[in-house]
Structure formats: structure tokens, C-alpha cells
Amino acid sequence: MAERPYIVGNWKMNGTRSMLSEARAIDRASQRLMKVEVALAPPFTLIHATHKEVEQIGVGAQDCHAGEEGAHTGDISAAMVLDAGAKFVILGHSERRQDHGETNEIVRDKTESALAAGLRIILCCGESEETRDAGKAEEFVTGQLRASLPASVAAMLESGPETLTVAYEPIWAIGTGRTPTVADISAMHRAIRATLVELYGEDNGSAVRILYGGSVKPDNATELLSADEVGGALVGGASLSAENFLGIVMAAVDLPE
Ligand code: 13P
Fold first, then answer.
1. 169 tagged catalytic
2. 215 lines ligand 1 (CB under 6 A)
3. Residue in 37, 53, 65, 93 annotated catalytic
4. Which CATH number fits the domain that encloses residue 171?
5. Is residue 59 part of a domain?
6. Tell me: the pLDDT tens digits for 119-145?
7. What DSSP designation does 93 have?
8. What is the rounded distance in angstroms from the CA atom of residue 48 to the CA atom of residue 121?
9. What is the pLDDT of residues 157-206, one digit of tens each?
10. pTM assigned to the model
11. Structural domain count of the chain
12. For ligand 1, mutation pick of 6, 7, 12, 224 (most atoms within 8 Å of CB)
């Protein structure tokens, strides 16, 4: 792993202010673990409070609208999440694609808008079980990635590879307790890496971190994080408890250099 491992918790639609104690505990422990970059994406309603509560870890949003402002009832812009204290945004999560009909084009527009506002991006991709069974997982995921990345990413990467992180999350592994084999994760991450190198050149394409997400737990984290080209994890359920999440962070700390 070239860069520091990046362990990100996605709280999804979970958490009220009583959960801030978990964020605080994660933050306090992470202050002593400089080998790993740790971040949390709470729901919109907790972004500002989490930002105020923590000192070390990154705070991000789980989505934003592609527009800058205006008549979009219930939506939140990139500038708004930035103003609330978010430094990054997760875009293109399969739950957004499924629940809200987000297409690659919508994800691309959101990515463009979030980059322009100054947010770092965690761009999600991942195949369904049907697509994997049909032997088309790599083709699907790399196609999804190409179609979700706006042209402006290339220039942004010139100023720093941390602008973009890709998260590979097979839909069938999310919240199910099932994970791909290490060989399958490595193969997919290598295919994603090859796509990034083709799009952004050897230096910038190699520097983008690729996270694995889908049923990452303290007891499988070492194995999953050791897979080739895995630069960290995007964690759902296990990020809701400081104890479980820190178990995953510790697995990243203990990885061989
Ligand atoms: P789980 O860790 O609950 O499987 O969720 C993964 C995920 O979707 C993170 O974005």
C-alpha cells in the first residue's frame, strides 16, 4: 500500500446526536494512530455536530445535489455540506443508485459540482450478483467508473491524488456478511487501477486510493485489507460502534508496510 490506509465509516441513515459519543471515541483513539487516515460520513443532520466534536478524523457527507442552489426541495448542495464542515462526499453509492435512480450521468454531474466546490470525492462502484454470475463484473464496474468520472478530475488530480478515492462495493456484499474472495477483490482492484492509469496516466492514476467496501468487520479486515491494490475500507454497519470500527482501524495499523 503506497499511501496511508484510508478507513472510512459510512453511517448511512443512522444516528442522532446520541451517536456523537461514538464519533468522539473514534476520534480520540485515532489521534494516536497516525499510520492510518480515518474518516466518518454521518447523515447530513450530524455533519456540523460531528465536525465540532472531532479533532483528528475527517468528516464527510454521503451525497450532495449536482446544482449550486435553487428550487430543489429537500436537497443539499456541495457548498452547503462544505459549509457544515464536510471535507469529502461519498457519491454514487449503490443505495443512492437503487433508491433514487441515480444514473452514471447524475453521479458524474454531482462529482463535477462537488469537486468545483472544493470537496474530496469517494466515488462508489460495484456490480450486482447477477452481473458477477454472468462473468461481467469487471467490464461493468470499469464502465460504471468511466461513465461517472467527469473530465475535470484529470486537472484536479494534478494538484493532489487525495482529491479522488474510488470505493469498490459489490452490491451483494453490502450488509449481507458475504464478501468476495481476496483473489476476486484483487482482480477487481487491478482492473480499476488499470482504468485509472489509462485515464490519468501512470503517476496520477497509480496514486488514487481504491477502497473495498461490503461486510468489512474487525475479524475479516486484515484479510480484506491485505488484498492487492486495496488502499483501505468503506465500512457501513461496523462503523456504527466505535469498538467495531476501531477494530478495523487497528487491523489497518497492523498491516505490514
Ligand atoms: P456494510 O459494511 O454494512 O456491508 O456496508 C458497506 C457500505 O455500503 C459502505 O458504504
1. yes
2. yes
3. 93
4. 3.20.20.70
5. yes
6. 999 999 999 999 999 999 999 999 999
7. -
8. 18
9. 998 889 999 999 999 999 999 999 999 999 999 999 999 999 999 999 99
10. 0.97
11. 1
12. 12
